[in-house]
Amino acid sequence: MDHSELILMRDVSIDFHLEGKSKVEIAKERDLSRFQVARLLSSARDLGIVRIAISLPEESDSELGAQLSAELGVDVSISPSHSDVGQRRELLARTVARAVRDRVREGMTVGMSWSRTIEAAAQYIDQLAPCEIVQLVGAQPVQGSGDSLELIQRFKAMPGVRTWPIWAPLVVRDAATATGLREQPQIAEALAKAGSLDLAVVAIGGWSRPTSTVYPNLSDADLEAARAGGTVGECSGRLFDADGREVQTPLDERVVAVTLEQLRRTPEVIACGFGAPCAPAVRAAVRGGFASALVLDAECAQAMVAVRS
Q1: What is the pLDDT of residues 36-59, one digit of tens each?
Q2: Which residue stretches of the chain are H helix?
Q3: Do 62 and 12 lie in a common domain?
Q4: At residue 309, does pLDDT exceed 60?
Q5: What angle do CA 137, 159, 296 make, to 5 degrees?
Q6: Is residue 60's pLDDT more than 90?
Q7: Fewer CB in 10 Å around end: N or C, the chain?
């Protein structure tokens, strides 16, 4: 996409959003088809040229974001709210995509975890500066969604992007299998790369069946160990307590993924949180030092204020 097309996107967006011209009027004035105008307007939103804020008065995203940012000491972005859960996740995904596009620079090593939101965000990233993308977690298929391997393949198709995949499940049956997988050369390289990232993109899950993709796949013994350790959240298959400290359980030996310590050593970690139930876990991730920039939906942000402690 060249600079002249970006300028055209900007000008068409001004005509439509600020001047109130119809797509038909713009198409006639600029010798375009109505479908070309629609595509330009859609691309302008996806690329962040147009940023539309729609909220009820009590949902002022900028005010709420500034409040949380000042309190937590991290950058906070909040996506618009919506009464439909699916639409709300899509709005969060767009905000995550914009945060990634704004931060990735040529030559960076970027770690990419997986969640339904991160998977959706990838659909709004058409290109990145030449960089390396490291898969941070093994595949954990979720009904109705893809997985981390599918996600990494999307980035592999981008010009100038080199990928480091993890050809393994996120959680395996026993420790010996996990050890063997982690020792496979390609997987070992990817996990080692996770220790020298410039930027990471992760999701913070609460500790319950609906809010964590790992939770439904654990045994009763695993769940009891997590409860005994005071687990409040999960990030990339790693459990943590209310202070963001690792909760050691037998699950650790069966997970093929980045560690929380590797994330702490990463200069910037974009952590996304979706829904009010995840609020305590997001706050804990900040306390634990593995979330330096938050991208939240309005419900999660409002709940974080409510659970302030």
Answers
A1: 999 999 999 888 888 776 655 544
A2: 3-13, 23-30, 34-46, 61-72, 85-103, 116-122, 148-156, 175-182, 185-193, 220-228, 260-264, 279-287, 298-306
A3: no
A4: no
A5: 45
A6: no
A7: C
For residue 111, give both structure tokens: 């770690």
Token pair, residue 275, equals 């829904």
**Residues in contact with 31: Cβ distance below 8 Å, sequence separation at least 6, in sequence order:** none
Question: For the sheet containing 233-235, what is the strand order?
Answer: 205-206, 233-235, 238-240
Q: Do residues 101 and 228 share a domain?
A: yes
Q: Is residue 137 part of a domain?
A: yes
Which structural domain range is residue 41 located in? 3-46
For residue 83, the domain's CATH number is 3.40.50.1360
Is residue 281, in this structure, part of any structural domain at all?
Answer: yes
Looking at the structure, tell me whether residues 168 and 146 fall in a common domain.
yes
Written as six digits, the tokens of 78 are 């909040």
Q: What is the pLDDT of residues 162-219, one digit of tens each?
A: 999 999 999 999 999 999 999 999 999 999 999 999 999 999 999 999 999 889 888 8
| 128 and 251 housed in the same domain | yes
Helix-strand-coil split of the chain, %, nearest 5: 50, 15, 35
In a domain, 51, yes or no: no
Q: What is the pLDDT of residues 78-129, one digit of tens each?
A: 988 777 888 889 989 999 999 999 999 999 999 999 999 999 999 999 889 9
Q: Which structure tokens are listed for 195?
A: 């220790």
Ramachandran region, residue 20 (left: φ > 0; alpha: ψ -120 to 50; beta: rest): left
Return the percentage of the chain with pLDDT > 90, whole number. Answer: 70
